[in-house]
Amino acid sequence: QVRDQLGALIARCPDRAFFDGPASEADIAKTEAAIGRALPDAYKQFLRAHNGGFIAQEAVTERDEATLDTEAWNANHLLGCDAIRHEYRDAFLIARDVEPDLGDWPFIPFCQTEGQETLVFGPPGPDGIAPVLDAFHEVGADEWGVLAPGFHVFLNRYVDTEGFPETIALTNG
After folding, report:
1. Which of 5, 11, 22, 55 maximizes the CB count within 10 A of its CB?
2. Nearest 5 degrees, angle CA 168-CA 170-CA 173?
């Protein structure tokens, strides 16, 4: 299973892998209430194991907050519950600035990329699985591309590339 493979990667790279402990069911529920929609089941499973985290590009010897913040900025950082709530609120406010009558924003930010873009879950498809979209901040949602059909596929790529899967932003940039 991919979560087990992520656990093995974390164990194999203790000087590069920085993942928080599990999110509580209450924190997951609080996040879903705050964003007004359910998180994808696959991401909730991730949160139950790790409330966010990242793989650094190189070994990290200094483990102070500033160094880890810098490393997270330069990585593909999977967001925890607090960060999802914060990023969703900010993205919704920006979208509402463009479209003042916007009552709902159907995208859930879950990853800040090394290219400083955001990966989001789009609305679930007919199969109930939310696709992973590369949310370029320079263009509207109608121009975002599908990066993976769901989080399970994205996480598999994340593990296979030790935290650095290609994103549309990097391949098109």
Report:
1. 55
2. 100
